[in-house]
């Protein structure tokens, strides 16, 4: 089963490359995307049954990925949220953990780890709807 994935990322090139890579390598189905905090929060909280994984950048055109993360704290048990950022410092990782994030990946050198994470969760039954 494909992992229904929603991407919050304001860089169009990164967005397109990431979606293409994940759809090709990790059995991911893109269900939508947002460029701003408000768009991301509205969709992820407004369509709770429509996604299995949210990939969130922290620095957005409007607002912050941290606001998106905070809005999704009450998500369903099978839903995963990961951060993909150029600023995956220890402090940022700790703040993300406090907000209930499942994983943090650095854009510059952890894309393979993100792909592996998606493969693990798409084959591990994480996307089975109740």
From TrEMBL:
It holds the Pfam family Response_reg. Residues 4-122 form the Response regulatory domain. Keywords: Phosphoprotein. It comes from the Bacteria. The keyword Phosphoprotein applies. GO terms for biological process: phosphorelay signal transduction system. Gene3D superfamilies: 3.40.50.2300. The modification 4-aspartylphosphate is found at residue 57. This is Response regulator. It comes from Paenacidovorax monticola. The lineage of its organism: Bacteria, Pseudomonadati, Pseudomonadota, Betaproteobacteria, Burkholderiales.
